[in-house]
Sequence to fold (143 residues):
Amino acid sequence: MIEEFKKFIMRGNVIDLAVGIIIGVAFTAIVKSIVGDLINPIVSLFLGGVDLSGLFVPLSKAEYASLADAEAAGIGVFAYGRFLMAVVNFIIIGVVLFAFVKMINELRNKTESAPDSSPVPKGPTTEELLVEIRDLLKHSQKA
Fold:
């Protein structure tokens, strides 16, 4: 059973998957930084500096100044602002990832379609080879 497990782990697919997950985690940090540090401040400018994630409705009669105050008091809250921000972040992340993948695919297509810079020497055509063989056979028959 241990040998089977070793074979399973050492198969290329499992190792490729592990590398993909590790790179995905690292890439997630980059995307979160792009969204949180670059894009969300721009969105905030358009919304007049309003932080949507702070919007909530307390599920009690008491009034609270902020979502953090309501949560600290242990009151149930309907935090629709967080949901709205999650939706906005999802859309932004989707657009950023789409642009990134599109850019990578365009670079890949340019690399694959670029002609090879080293010229391949052109060999003789089939007809030229047949003529040469015929001539060699004629010379060998004369001798």
